Amino acid sequence: MDADARARRELEMELRQTIAAGSGLEVYYQPCVDLRSNEITGCEALVRWRHPVRGMISPAEFVPIAEETGLINQLGEWVLMTACKEAVNWPDQIRLAVNVSPIQFRSGTLALKVIAALAASGLSAGRLELEITEAVLIRDDETALAAMHQLRAIGIRIALDDFGTGYSSLSYLKRFP
């Protein structure tokens, strides 16, 4: 096993331990601003990993590992639960946006996990927005469509993140709720 593969495997094991322990991960919030009024309308939850030895590890380094190993489901669930519990204390007009990976979206349990996070936190469904990428729509659109309908039925907003970086068009997107 070469050095890069060993380092990646070690990082994966440390990420597993971090998620299981529930410590070392942090949620940072990036404000969403209405450009007309210059008011904050919401915040996007962004996960960060404070490694005990390496310091802050970029999501660009650990999120792909989480996606490749299936850890993204547990990581995403932790971010969703943590962010909902913190956002419930914000002013009522401030929305919470949480990124959802294509793997989470296709898991078949996303709606149940969202409902559980809302119930545990007391956050109203209307204040939660899930951000998905074009990859969710392109890869398996029937599964994505069913999941989107489930989420919309409970009042969750769906937003398309990074539109234009993939292959979808506006006419294609009209099919989705």
UniProtKB/TrEMBL annotation:
Transmembrane segments: none annotated. Residues 8-177 form the EAL domain. It holds the Pfam family EAL. InterPro entries: Biofilm_reg_signaling (IPR052155), EAL_dom (IPR001633), EAL_sf (IPR035919). Gene3D superfamilies: EAL domain. SUPFAM superfamilies: EAL domain-like. This is EAL domain-containing protein. It comes from Chiloscyllium punctatum. The lineage of its organism: Eukaryota, Metazoa, Chordata, Craniata, Vertebrata.
